[in-house]
Structures are given as C-alpha cells and as structure tokens.
Amino acid sequence: MILGHGQAYPSSHWILDNNPMHVDYIKIYVDGVTEKYKAYPFPPYTMKPEEVIDMGSTQGKFIQLRRKA
Question: What does each C-alpha distance from 68 to 36, 49, 60 come to in angstroms?
Fold first, then answer.
C-alpha cells in the first residue's frame, strides 16, 4: 500500500521537533499523501499528537517512521 511520497533524511542527530527520535526510526519529509489515504490513522510516536491526527496532516512536515517500514 502506498500512502504517499516523501524523502528520507539520514541524520547524525536524532532530534525532531525539539524531541529525541526513537532509535528504530528515521526522519522523513512528506511531499504528498494519496487522496484516499488522507484520513488514514497515523502511527503513534511519529509526530506531536496535537499537530498530526491522520496521514493528511503529515503533508509538508517532517515525521519519523520505523526504519523497517
């Protein structure tokens, strides 16, 4: 399933939104989200919960996703 498109950013510092990132996660910039998945729930621990409520709200932001995903 393809939810959208983004770019992975390898980083030597593990900070996102002034918070430490989880060890098994990588930083992703979300370029766009496929229309039918914009309301798809977003995995926990990937962003500030008050800013990101679904996939549509990740567009144009940095998020963290599991490395294996």
Answer: 24, 22, 22
Other beta carbons within 10 Å of 16: 21
Give the domain extent around 46. Answer: 4-66
Return the DSSP state at 10.
Answer: -
Residue range 17-45, pLDDT digits in tens: 788 888 888 888 999 999 999 999 877 66
Chain CA centroid to CA 56, Å: 11
pTM of this structure = 0.78
SS3 68: coil
Which of these, 5, 8, 29, lies nearest to 17 by C-alpha position?
29
How many domains are there within the chain?
Answer: 1
